[in-house]
Amino acid sequence: MLLIGDDWAEDHHDVEVQDESGRKLVAANLPEGVAGIAKLHELIARHGGADLNPAEVVVGIETDRGSWVQALIASGYQVYAINPRQVARFKERYSTSGAKSDKGDAHALADMVRIDRDQLRPVAGDSDAAQAVKVVARAHQTLIWERTRTFQRLRSTLREYFPAALTAYADLALTSTDALELLIKAPTPATGAKLTRTQITAVLVRHRRRNRDAKAATVQTALREPQLSLPEPVTAAYAAASTAHARLIIALNEQIDAMEEQVKKHFLAHPDAEIYLSMPGIAEITGARVLAEFGDDPTRYASAKARKNYAGTSPVTRASGKTRTVQARYVRNNRLADALQRQAFGALRVSPGARRYYDKQRAREAGYNPALRQVGNRLVGILHGCLKTRTLYDEATAWSHHVHTATP
User: Is 222 within the bounds of a domain?
Assistant: First the structure.
């Protein structure tokens, strides 16, 4: 068996090859791409022999995606994606100075897959369809996060020189394209006060807003409210910054809508989509995000508990001496945690069982978030059972043992 530590960078890989005893056989710096993979295969063949089974090659690397990782998996090697934080803690066995080098990281990765392989998680064997869902779902969510950051910058800018705009466009939502177009048309208090109701209504008509006359009147009134002013050059500079942010959000809105269609397309083409959509609180976008982060490798989660642990919905117990506390998991997949919280919140409205379970947690004096997390934890277990048995969600079956019948 050969153990390989692969410390990757943008354009190269530092690798170390060890035998089962931990003896270093070779260390090399390999280029990214086809040439690098070919040289890695040569190293493996040279030190493992022609009759080496690819499954006896174990690779530790700090990522679970990308063409390099896929090439390793396609070669039949065992590939373990190791969290950089785990690598940093493992390296403390050698030194506490905090020193770092690419060769040192490659050595630590090789040692980890040799010594602690049973404690590590191999890269999931997700299907091509699941990987495609993951790519588009993450891209869609990242664009939404970027829009939120850009909006916060725009809002902060407007508060400093044009607070009336925040009030005027509150009903329209300042991230909406029509509100942003009005802001671009009149980016200063003076130009905003000159906007006519006809001009405002024309923009609202183009974007098919309802109650256009009332909304136009509200916007015009707010923009004409007296407010403190800044010197004209300073106002012009703020207006330029606001216009840039507004145009960027409009572009993000367009790409978010386009990517949303891709998310739905890839998700609905996946064979597990019907099971996910049968779950309460899950629609196409949320379902795509949950599927993307869980993957579809049927062997990845040995039990519902394993899936809950990965999801971060199950609590962590900390016990030392006579002290024992149960806490929420905060080191987790944040994308998955966000999607599951959205599902749990939606399930409260459509699932009587989820609602009863939530109310039961609140009756035990659990806070809103802990109670919602417990609902999400329960739903993850139900999802695991549905995927394992290839059956759709059934409300009565899912919550049957939580229904207490009155005793005669």
Answer: yes
